[in-house]
Design brief:
187 residues
């Protein structure tokens, strides 16, 4: 048996750190743990930022974060786990993007960092200190990486696109209403 190398230990630490944070965020959404608001409160928030229906959006985001994060930490089904977590973080980044990059201003820095870490793990793999390795990589095949990331990118684009259209609709209606209320000045 060969000794584990620095790469395996580094991937384990990255998986535990990013996966643990993602799992905790998902538990906030799903269960109200760690100061979270649970499905009801998170669902109301999701509605307020344009993700509708709110409860279904909160459930999907919570499952992607809690499930993806837990699986990343364990190093199991790494391509699917990383893709799910990355998709959830892309949705979160869309909410924070109007505030710029930095987290202290409410920007997308934090969501982007977690999403990129999850994507990097999906691409790189979990290392030898993982359940994927122990199970002979049955759920971590090379073809699964582009399939999982591609499917997640497509679904995320549809969901974020629908949110963006939903948010633009009141602005467009208000602009149309303002234009119809204007009268010619006759000058």
């Amino acid at each position: 048996m060969t000794a584990f190398d620095r790469r395996d230990v580094g991937l384990l630490l990255l998986r535990l750190g990013a996966g643990g944070v993602l799992a905790a965020h998902g538990a906030q959404k799903l269960l109200g743990w760690f100061g979270g608001h649970g499905i009801e409160g998170t669902g109301q928030f999701m509605e307020s930022v344009g993700y509708a229906p709110g409860r279904a959006s909160a459930t999907a985001a919570g499952l992607a974060e809690a499930g993806g994060g837990t699986l990343l930490a364990l190093g199991m089904a790494t391509p699917a786990a990383g893709a799910a977590a990355a998709g959830a973080m892309a949705g979160a980044a869309a909410v924070h993007a109007p505030n710029g990059f930095f987290n202290q201003e409410g920007g997308y820095e934090y969501a982007a960092t977690l999403g990129l870490a999850a994507t990097g793990l999906a691409v790189t793999g979990p290392g030898r200190l993982s359940l994927d390795h122990a199970l002979g990589h049955a759920l971590d095949r090379g073809w699964m990486v582009p399939a999982a990331l591609g499917a997640t990118a497509a679904v995320t684009a549809v969901i974020v696109g629908a949110r963006n259209r939903r948010l633009r609709k009141p602005e467009q209606e208000a602009a149309a209403g303002f234009a119809s209320q204007e009268s010619p000045s006759g000058e």
